[in-house]
UniProtKB/TrEMBL annotation:
It holds the Pfam family PAS_9. This is histidine kinase. The lineage of its organism: Bacteria, Pseudomonadati, Pseudomonadota, Betaproteobacteria, Rhodocyclales. Its EC number is 2.7.13.3. It is an enzyme of class 2 (transferase). It catalyses: ATP + protein L-histidine = ADP + protein N-phospho-L-histidine. Residues 760-972 form the Histidine kinase domain. The chain crosses the membrane at residues 41-61. The keyword Metal-binding does not apply. Keywords: Kinase, Membrane, Phosphoprotein, Transferase, Transmembrane, Transmembrane helix.
Length: 972
C-alpha cells in the first residue's frame, strides 16, 4: 500500500469533503437500493445537514490550526550585588510628571500572576502586584516551591523539573487545577533565574498565566485530527487527491482493496491513463468533458483488472478544490468497490434464467394458477400428464381437469390462502389425465404473494399417487393379517402409548380377567402392577424412557392385580416400537410358575456364595449410610483378633489408628456422597493384641435397587509384611547412598590424582622432547656442512619424531580431559557448527575443489564445546581422506531410524575395509599408513568419548576407495 502526503490545501479539504461526500452519497445509495422513485427532499435533508456540518468543521479546524504569534518574553531585570532581596526592594519612585509604567496595567488587565522566589526557592511577595487570580495555589507567600508546585507535577516530570531547579535553569510547568464548581483549569508558570553581579543565585522571577482555553483548543484539535485520520484510515472507501492537471498526488491505504489503485505507478497518472484504460472509450470521454467544466461528479462506474486478471468494478465521486485565491487546485474524492453489487446483479440474472429452465424442464408436474382459477403457466411435464399442449392449457379454467366437487373444494382452500388464514395446503384429488383416465394425485399448492405490479398467484405441484394408493390398499390388507396374528398370540401382549394400554390381545384379557375387548384400553399399565412392586416398576420404566439407546426391557418377575382383585405373578418384558405414528412399548407377560423351582437353585447359590466369602483371606465388609459395619467375614477375626459378631454395629472408624482416622473418614464420606466410585488407599488397623497392622482398602458405594447409595462395601488386604519389606528396602537404599557418596569421594580424589599425573606427563615429557628437538635443530644449522646426506636425514627424522611425540602427548591429554569436563546441555544448531568448521578448513586449503552439502537447521540437545570437538574430528578426517580426489564431496545430514534421529558425516574419500571396523575407534589404531595420511590415531577415539558422554553411539560404514560414512546418535 502507498500513502503520499497531500498538499496543505487538500488536507484542509479532506474532512469537509468526506463528510459532505458521505451526506451526498447516502441518498444515492438509498435510491439505488429502494428504487429511483423513493428519493425525496425529506430523506436527503439529514445527509445534506451532515455535509454542511463537515464544511463548517473543516473551516473551524483550519482556523484553529493556524499558529498564533507568541511575543518574545521580556528580559528579567537583574539585581545588583550586595542589594537587599528583590522582595524587600521598594518600588523605584518615578520622576515628577512622568506617567506610571503601562506594563503594570497590562498585567492587571491580563489577570497574570507575577511571582518571585528567594535563593531558597520560597515565594516572596511582589510589591504593588495585582490581585492574583483564583486559579493560583492559596497561601503561596512564605512556602517553598517544593511544597506548592512539585506535588502537583507528574512523578516522571517532577524529577526532570527538580534537576532543572538544581542547575538554576529556566523553568516552565503547567498545573491542572479545579475551580470551586469542579471545572478543570490549567495554570502555566514560566520563570527565569536571577543572579547578582557576582554571579550568585538570588532566586526565580516569573509569570503565572491561565492557559485553559489554549489547552482545550489544543486537545480539541488533536481529537479532530485523530477523527480525520481514523475516518480516512478505517473507511471502506478509498480516498484520493489530484492536482490541477488531474494527476493522482495522494491515495489512502484503504484504496489498496480497489483493484491496485494504490499501486506505485498510480501516483502521477490520470485516472484514464492507468493500465487497461483509454480516454477515447466509455465512460472516460464524457467524464473528461465534465472535468473540464470543473464540476463535481459522482457515481462514475468503470471496470479495471487487478494483478490476477479479475474484473473489479469501481464507483468514484469527487469535488473540485480551490486555493485561497479561488484558483482551481485539483480534485479530491472517494472510490468504492461495487464489484459485489455488480456480480450479484449478474448472478440474479443467471439465477432467473436457471430457475426458468428448471421450471420448464423439471421432471415434476409444476404449474401456476391465477386467483380466478385459471392456468397461468404449466411446464412440459404437467402438460404431458394432462394430455394437452401447454399453449392450450394457458388461460384455461381449472375445473376442466377435475370434478366439480374437487374444483369447489380447491377454490375454497385458495380463498383461505388469499385471506392470510393459511399459505399452503396439500390434498388428494383425482385429475382428468391423458387417455381420458382419472388418476389419484397429490396436489400441493402454495401462495405466491403479489408485488406492486403483479397480482398474487399459486404455485401447484401435481404428483401421481395412484400406485401409492394401490400400495396403501395392499398394506391395509397386510395390517389386517398382522392384527389377527396379534389377537391370536398365546402370550399376553399389550401395546402401551404414554404408559396407557392402547391395544390388548385375547391372551392378555384372559390373564387380567377382562370380559370386554376394550376393557383394558385406557388403563395405566402401572395400575395393574401390585402396590408393593409398583414403585420398582415405575423406576424401571422411567430409566427406560430416559435412555433412548435401550431398545428393550429385560425380563422381570412382578406381581400384578387382575380386574377382579386377584394377585398373579408374571414375567414382564418389553420393546420399543411405533404404533399409529407414535412411540409405544410392546409388553409381553409370561407365567412365572417355572421360576418357583429357580428360587431353590438361588438359595443354594447363596449358600455357596457365603462359603466362598467366608473362605477368603481378605477382609470383606459392608457398612450402612452412617458408616456402621453391617457385614464381616471370618478374615476379620483372623487379622484383627476382634469377634466379628461383636464388631457388627460399630463404626469402622473405631478400628482405625488415630493418625489415619481423618483420612479414612474423608474417603468414606466421598463414597457416601457420590464423589468417588471407587477408593483405594492404605491405613493402619487396630488389632486386639498385636498392635497396628497395615491394610490396603478397596471400597465402593453400596446401592439399592433405585441406585441410591445406602452404604459402602469393600475389602481390606493385610499388607503389613509388604510394608516391613519396604521399610527394609528404604534402609538398604540409605546405606547404599552412603556407600555411593564414599565411592564418589574416592573417585573425585582419583580424578584429581589423574589430573596431577596428566600435568606431570605434559610438563616432564615435553621438556626432554623440546631439548631433543632444539639440539637437533642446532646440529642441523651449525654442523650441517660437516654431515653427509645420511646424517642430515637422520637429524630430520629425529625432529619429526619429537614433534609427533609432542602432538601425541597433547592429544592424549585432550582425550583424558573429555571424561572429566563438566557437560552443559543446550539446544545447539549442528548445521551452523558444521558450516563454521568447513569454512575454517577452506581457509586453510583454499585451492581444494570440493562440493559440500549441509542439511540446514539440524538442532540437538548437546554440550556445545564437546559436540564441536567431535564434529571437527569427523570433518577433518573427511577433509584429509578426500585430499586425493579431483573433486571432493563432503555431506552432513540426518535421517530417522527406529524412531531415533541419526546424524551422518559422509565423504567420497579413500574409505577402509569393514573387516577392521572394530578397531576403528581405539586409540593409536590406524587403518592407513602414516606415509599415506598424517595423524596420531586419537581423533576417532575422541569422537567416541564425546558421543558416549552424550549417551549415544557412533559407528561407520565404508568401502575401500569409495568413501566412508560415520553415523552417531545423541540422547535427547
Amino acid at each position: 500500500m502507498l500513502f503520499r502526503p497531500a498538499s496543505p490545501l487538500l488536507r484542509r479539504a479532506a474532512l469537509p469533503f468526506l463528510l459532505a461526500a458521505g451526506g451526498a452519497y447516502a441518498p444515492v445509495v438509498l435510491a439505488a437500493a429502494g428504487g429511483a422513485g423513493d428519493f425525496s427532499i425529506q430523506t436527503s435533508l439529514p445527509y445534506l445537514l451532515v455535509a454542511g456540518g463537515g464544511l463548517a468543521a473543516g473551516l473551524l479546524l483550519g482556523r484553529i490550526s493556524r499558529p498564533r504569534p507568541v511575543p518574545p518574553p521580556a528580559p528579567a531585570p537583574l539585581s545588583v550585588s550586595g542589594a537587599p532581596p528583590l522582595s524587600a526592594m521598594p518600588p523605584r519612585p518615578m520622576p515628577p510628571g512622568v506617567p506610571t509604567t503601562p506594563w503594570r496595567d497590562f498585567v492587571e488587565i491580563a489577570s497574570d500572576w507575577p511571582w518571585e522566589t528567594d535563593a531558597t526557592l520560597r515565594f516572596v511577595p511582589v510589591p504593588d502586584a495585582p490581585t492574583p487570580p483564583s486559579i493560583i495555589p492559596p497561601d503561596t507567600i512564605g512556602r517553598s516551591w517544593e511544597e506548592v508546585i512539585v506535588p502537583e507535577l507528574p512523578p516522571d516530570f517532577a524529577i526532570a523539573h527538580q534537576e532543572s531547579l538544581g542547575r538554576h535553569g529556566p523553568i516552565a510547568v503547567t498545573l491542572t487545577r479545579r475551580s470551586a464548581t469542579g471545572e478543570v483549569r490549567y495554570l502555566e508558570l514560566r520563570g527565569r533565574p536571577i543572579f547578582d553581579s557576582a554571579g550568585q543565585f538570588q532566586g526565580y522571577r516569573g509569570i503565572g498565566r491561565e492557559v485553559t482555553d489554549r489547552a482545550r483548543l489544543s486537545a480539541n484539535l488533536e481529537r479532530n485530527e485523530e477523527r480525520i485520520h481514523a475516518l480516512i484510515a478505517y473507511s471502506t472507501d478509498g480516498y484520493w487527491e489530484q492536482d490541477a492537471n488531474l494527476r493522482y498526488t495522494a491515495i489512502t491505504a484503504s484504496s489498496g482493496h480497489l483493484a491496485d489503485l494504490a499501486a506505485e505507478d498510480a501516483i502521477g497518472n490520470r485516472r484514464w491513463e492507468l493500465p487497461g484504460e483509454s480516454p477515447d472509450e466509455a465512460p472516460w470521454a464524457e467524464h473528461i468533458a465534465q472535468l473540464k467544466q470543473i464540476e463535481p461528479f459522482s457515481n462514475l462506474v468503470f471496470c479495471r483488472r487487478d494483478r490476477n486478471g479479475r474484473a473489479i468494478w469501481l464507483s468514484e465521486s469527487g469535488i473540485p478544490v480551490f486555493d485561497n485565491r479561488g484558483v482551481f487546485a485539483g480534485y479530491c474524492g472517494t472510490t468504492r468497490n461495487i464489484t459485489d453489487r455488480v456480480v450479484a446483479r449478474e448472478q440474479l440474472q443467471r439465477d432467473e434464467a436457471l430457475f426458468r429452465a428448471l421450471f420448464e424442464h423439471a421432471p415434476a408436474n409444476v404449474g401456476r394458477i391465477s386467483v380466478d382459477d385459471r392456468w397461468l403457466q404449466v411446464n412440459a411435464a404437467l402438460a404431458a400428464f394432462l394430455g394437452q399442449p401447454a399453449e392450450a392449457l394457458a388461460g384455461a379454467a381449472l375445473d376442466a381437469v377435475m370434478s366439480t366437487e374437487d374444483a369447489a373444494a380447491g377454490k375454497a382452500l385458495r380463498a383461505r390462502c388469499l385471506t392470510g388464514e393459511i399459505d399452503h395446503y396439500s390434498r388428494d384429488v383425482r385429475y382428468h389425465c391423458a387417455n381420458d383416465s382419472m388418476l389419484w394425485c397429490r396436489e400441493s399448492v402454495r401462495l405466491i404473494p403479489g408485488r406492486d405490479d403483479t397480482p398474487p398467484s399459486f404455485a401447484v405441484v401435481v404428483e401421481d399417487i395412484s400406485a401409492v394408493r394401490d400400495t396403501l390398499d395392499t398394506r391395509r390388507a397386510g395390517e389386517e393379517r398382522y392384527r389377527q396374528l396379534f389377537e391370536l398370540s398365546p402370550e399376553a401382549t399389550l401395546v402401551c402409548i404414554d404408559g396407557r394400554i392402547h391395544l390388548s390381545n385375547a391372551a392378555s384379557r384372559r390373564l387380567f380377567a377382562a370380559d370386554d375387548t376394550r376393557a383394558l384400553e385406557g388403563i395405566e399399565m402401572l395400575n395393574l402392577v401390585h402396590p408393593d412392586d409398583r414403585a420398582m416398576e415405575a423406576a424401571r420404566l422411567q430409566q427406560f424412557a430416559a435412555n433412548p439407546e435401550q431398545t428393550g426391557l429385560a425380563p422381570l418377575p412382578l406381581r400384578y392385580q387382575r380386574l377382579d382383585g386377584e394377585c398373579i405373578n408374571a414375567e414382564a418384558t418389553g420393546v420399543r416400537m411405533r404404533f399409529d405414528g407414535q412411540p409405544a412399548v410392546l409388553y409381553v407377560l409370561r407365567d412365572v410358575a417355572r421360576w418357583l423351582s429357580a428360587e431353590q437353585v438361588l438359595r443354594e447359590s447363596r449358600a455357596m456364595y457365603r462359603d466362598v466369602v467366608e473362605s477368603v483371606n481378605e477382609i470383606l465388609f459392608q457398612t450402612d449410610g452412617e458408616g456402621r459395619v453391617t457385614f464381616l467375614n471370618r478374615a476379620w477375626r483372623h487379622t484383627t483378633g476382634f469377634d466379628g459378631r461383636l464388631s457388627i454395629g460399630q463404626s469402622l472408624l473405631d478400628f482405625v489408628a488415630d493418625e489415619d482416622r481423618s483420612r479414612v473418614e474423608q474417603h468414606l464420606r466421598s463414597i457416601r456422597e457420590g464423589y468417588e466410585d471407587i477408593a483405594q488407599f492404605e491405613f493402619r488397623l487396630r488389632t486386639h493384641s498385636e498392635g497396628l497392622r497395615w491394610v490396603e482398602a478397596t471400597i465402593r458405594p453400596l446401592r439399592d435397587t433405585y441406585d441410591h447409595v445406602v452404604g459402602s462395601s469393600g475389602t481390606l488386604d493385610d499388607i503389613t509384611a509388604r510394608k516391613e519389606a519396604e521399610q527394609s528396602q528404604r534402609n538398604l537404599n540409605l546405606e547404599l547412598e552412603a556407600r555411593v557418596r564414599v565411592r564418589t569421594a574416592e573417585l573425585e580424589a582419583s580424578n584429581r590424582e589423574l589430573e596431577a599425573f596428566s600435568y606431570s606427563v605434559s610438563h616432564d615429557l615435553r621438556a626432554p622432547l623440546r631439548a631433543i628437538d632444539g639440539f637437533a635443530q642446532i646440529v642441523a644449522e651449525d654442523y650441517a656442512p660437516r654431515l653427509d646426506e645420511t646424517g642430515r636425514e637422520y637429524l630430520h627424522r629425529i625432529r619429526i619424531a619429537t614433534q609427533k611425540m609432542a602432538r601425541l602427548i597433547d592429544d592424549l591429554i585432550d582425550l583424558a580431559r573429555l571424561t572429566r569436563q563438566a557437560m552443559k546441555r543446550e539446544q545447539v544448531n549442528l548445521s551452523q557448527i558444521v558450516e563454521q568448521i568447513l569454512t575454517e578448513l577452506r581457509q586453510e586449503d583454499p585451492e581444494r575443489a570440493i562440493e559440500i552439502h549441509v542439511e540446514p537447521n539440524l538442532v540437538a540437545a548437546a554440550d556445545r564445546a564437546l559436540i564441536r570437538v567431535a564434529l571437527e574430528n569427523l570433518l577433518r578426517n573427511a577433509w584429509k581422506f578426500t585430499s586425493r580426489r579431483d573433486v571432493a564431496q563432503i555431506r552432513f545430514h540426518a535421517e530417522m531410524r527406529d524412531r531415533q534421529i541419526v546424524y551422518c558425516v559422509s565423504d567420497n574419500g579413500a574409505g577402509f575395509d569393514m573387516t577392521f571396523a572394530s578397531k576403528l575407534f581405539l586409540p593409536f589404531h590406524r587403518l592407513h599408513g602414516i606415509s599415506e595420511f598424517a595423524g596420531t590415531g586419537i581423533g576417532l577415539a575422541t569422537v567416541q568419548r564425546v558421543i558416549q558422554r552424550h549417551e549415544g553411539r557412533v559407528w561407520a560404514q565404508s568401502t575401500p576407495d569409495q568413501g566412508a560414512s560415520f553415523f552417531f546418535t545423541l540422547c535427547h
